[in-house]
Amino acid sequence: MKAYKKVAILGVGLLGGSIGLVLKKRRLAQEIVGHFRNPKKIRPAVRLGLIDTGTTDLKEAVRDADVVVVCTPVSDIERKLTLLKTLVVPRRSSPTPAAPRSPSCGRPAASILSARTRSQALSRAALLRRTPTSCATASAS
Predict the structure, then answer these.
(1) Greater confidence, 126 or 12?
(2) pLDDT-derived band of residue 49, with 50, 70 and 90 as boundaries?
(3) How far apart are CA 129 and CA 138, in angstroms?
(4) What is the pLDDT of residue 21?
(5) d(CA 108, CA 101)
(6) DSSP of 7-62, one letter per residue?
(7) Complete domains list, the chain, with CATH
């Protein structure tokens, strides 16, 4: 499969971080840019290898992106898509990661990742959580 030149991930948490890891591991993107609300989360995400670069500027994150992955809370997806309409020209659309099933095989999307990749992504993404309480909860499970 041909690698994308640039992939933008809006929301590099558990799901967005997992997608970033898989894209890097399988060399499916030359550049992975993460969009963050909190600038303090950028450096740890880069250090953990979830993305190549990060920004708090949505316009900068999606500029020249071949693919934009929206990994925000479901309640925020509509607002993000409305903003994106003014920033990008869609070439084609795909189901969002919020879809409960993978369109390719009907299995839950998380089951497509290997168990090792999933556990690595879970532990790395837990470090990016907002509160120390949620970090402790995530690492205990």
Answers:
(1) 12
(2) very high
(3) 9
(4) 94
(5) 5
(6) EEEE--SHHHHHHHHHHHHTT-EEEEEEE-SSGGGHHHHHHTTS-SEEES-HHHHH
(7) 4-140 (3.40.50.720)
